[in-house]
Each structure stands twice: as C-alpha cells, then as structure tokens.
Amino acid sequence: MVLNLSLNRPIDTVAMSSLRPLPARFRRRVAAPTVESLTDRLGSLASERQELRATGAGSVALERNRVAIARAQWELSYALIERYLPKPAAAQSAA
C-alpha cells in the first residue's frame, strides 16, 4: 500500500486570537485589590444577597448584587492566578 500525500490539500489556517475581547465591566483595574480584600468583599456581597432575599427585594436589586458577586469572583480568580502562578525563568533570574 502506497500513500500519495501529494494529492492531499494542505490544511487552511486562519489567524486567531487566544481570547475574545472582554467587556469593560470585566476588565481588571490597574491597581488590583488583594486576595484578602476580595474575599472580604465576597463575604459582604453574599450577606447582602441573603438580606435582599429575606426582605423580598426586587429582581433589579438581586441582579445588581449577582453581577457584583460575579465580578468579585472574577477578580479573585485572577488575583489568585497572579499570586500563585509560577513566574517564567527569565523573570526569576532578573529579580
């Protein structure tokens, strides 16, 4: 059995970015909060949500709280990545 590779068309490729653009509300701030302050903020937002539910708050207030929680969780995940991701070897040797 003989393969005739010259008859196969090459795979078409296109340039792609690894990440889609983030909406402005999900972009990180220049001075990022600490992991500890974000954890405290998440606790406050969760308590606020429980209070909103207990008092029968409207859907608009609950949605604002949900978005604030999602943003704080997003910022916390990136803060943890920045804290614990190993630095590249070139950056470590320069420090």
Polypeptide structure, described:
- The structure is a single chain.
- By secondary structure, this protein is mainly α.
- It has a domain at 32-84.
- It has three helices and no strands.
- It has helices at 35-54, 59-84, 89-94.
- Helix 1 packs antiparallel against helix 2 (59-84).
- The mean pLDDT is 82.
Keywords:
mainly alpha; elongated
How is the main sheet built?
none
- In DSSP terms (H or I, runs of 4 or more residues), the helix count works out at 3
Helix fraction bin:
40-55%
Low-confidence spans: pLDDT under 50, at least 5 residues? none
Task: Please report the total strand number as a whole number.
Answer: 0
Task: Classify the secondary structure makeup into a structural class.
Answer: mainly alpha
- Shape estimate: elongated
Average pLDDT over all residues: 82
What does this entry show, briefly?
The protein is built from three helices and no strands.
Helices, strands, pairings?
Layout: H1 35-54, H2 59-84, H3 89-94
